[in-house]
Amino acid sequence: MSEPSIVVEGVSKRFRLYHERNQSLKVALLRGRRAVVDEFWALRDVSFEVPQGSSFGLIGENGSGKSTLLKCMARILRPETGSISVVGKVSALLELGAGFHPELSGRENVFLNGAILGLPQKELQRKFDEIVAFAGLEQFIDQPVKNYSSGMYVRLGFSVAINVDPDVLLVDEVLAVGDEVFQRKCNEKFADLKSRGKTIVLVSHAMTSVHNICDRVAWLDHGQVKMVDAARKVVDEYVGAVQVDRTVDGEDGGERWGSGEARVETVELLDANGSSVSRIRTGEAATIRLHYRFHEPVDKPVFAVTIQTLDGTHVSGPTTRDADQVPDRLLGAGYVDLTFDRMMLLPGTFDINVSIQDYSCLHPYDFRHKVLRFDVEPGEPHESFGLVALGGRWARTEDTGTEETT
Amino acid sequence: MTSLADYRESRELLTHLTLRELRGKYKRSTLGWAWSLLNPLSTMLIFTIVFRVFFRAEAPEGSPSGLSSFALFLLCGLLPWNFLTNSVFGSLGTVIGNASLIRKTYFPRELLVVSQVASWIVSFLLELSLLAVILLIVGNMVLPLVPVVLALVVVLALFATGLSLALSVFNVFFRDVQHFVGIFFQAWFYLSPIVYSVDLVPERHAIFGTDVPLRAIYKWNPMAAFAEAFRDCLYHLRLPSLSTFAYLVTIAVATFLLGLFIFGRFEGRLAEEL
Description:
heterodimer; A: alpha/beta; Coagulation Factor XIII, Chain A, domain 1; 6-stranded mixed sheet
């Protein structure tokens, strides 16, 4: 890591909040100044450096000042105090479509945007086909962009921003848009830029992509830097701190059916300490606890749990029958624990379905669909793709017998 | 930050924005660019009917050209005036209208205003060319004075840019500015010798019992001086006086620098105020 590409030094940014957004001379004259304002410091004394050729993430809750900081870097906003120095050509991609003109065609907008980003006309002409192909918009390039879908809009904006060959690319939360193919293309382009020593600054809420793309991350909290460190460290800390509690009881959410002799009252997800949570980490111990009540005696009841993804793919479906733990007869209340020594689900959001059925598993006494939703956060083992970690180990052996040159 | 590269980039962006303005101006209208000429011609027709026919205003005789045509006399003052108002109102609109561009991208914001003015220069030159052709047909040999007219166009453009820069940035902070400017320009129009000749303004006039040298004051109005200078060249076929020209250059440069300064002061907060 050579000299820094971006130096942020003691940056503070103040916004004025107008009580009545009444930009009139009358108000100014009557009050002797411009309306009544409240001041709001979006950034306070923010300092850090971004090394050249690295990708840098900015994370934080809504309103923590990440986007403001990015706009200051892009010179769109001017900080009240402090300075930001950026080495080289900056290309910024903020929000949807970086300032396209809706009436103009895609082609005209590419040229306009390229000119704004400072790409010489000749070079733009040379790269035009590449830009359009990257966005996958060959058919629509002569349509006014107001007819574009939001995905097309973003793809074109992103394609221009990334193909003007910036030294520093600033990206705000756009990776979430666009289909998987496009996202993959973007990630490849990021990797390509990085390998050529360019710097990327990324603002995102998607911890997985921050985790995957960024080397270093700054965590902003209410306009102040809380932590700047290696991506994994910061993301782990951040995820730990920001616990959004999901409603533990899905009574209102999921569907429910069954003959009713036995009922699952509540379902809990417990972490290693036995406390009820809605988030766990890959590799940690977890327990799904079913509180049941049998109103009538039932012979050989089977408890079942299925874990599914949001799009309905079943990841796992253990039952007490498969585990050979079926009691002869049950009556009254109690609970059943399904314990995982290591929860091997990879980061994502999952739903739990639970049921109590007869031994044939054909007749449900109570079936509760999507009774509990929970999140899995990155942990150990760390894998980027798939739903579960199967615990595979890598080993490499070099051929010793051959005399080939290396 | 190499200023040379910055300058080159800015120039390319300016060309681009200006072309966009020009292309967009008459997009989707059937007559297209013909409107650029039809607008001043219709204004000319209205004023000629009202003032020449109803008010029986006499067109002053051109000296030394000897030309006498109210319509042409009017056009010589009207075209520069139209250029100024179009530039100013266009700039007020362009800064507000390009809010999304300002909020999401960085580029020297002055270019929005400058490109707006530049696009109106193109219309202005087109109109002037048509006027010159008509003048040549009626026997006014304007060709030798073309360089002077072009110099006047440059000076007026500087003046218009300065005014546009200042007013357009004020307008972002106080939206009343555009309404105020509307009234102000209406008054300014009638206080400038566009539909009448400066000779009609009394030399001296008593206001509240005080004798005021009205015409001398009147002539300080930059647009009076501009209209007169254009008319000197095109209608009368004579050179504007050196003092007038010096006055115009001074006021234009001063306005331009002041506009640039004001715009620079407030430019940084445009993105958050829009």
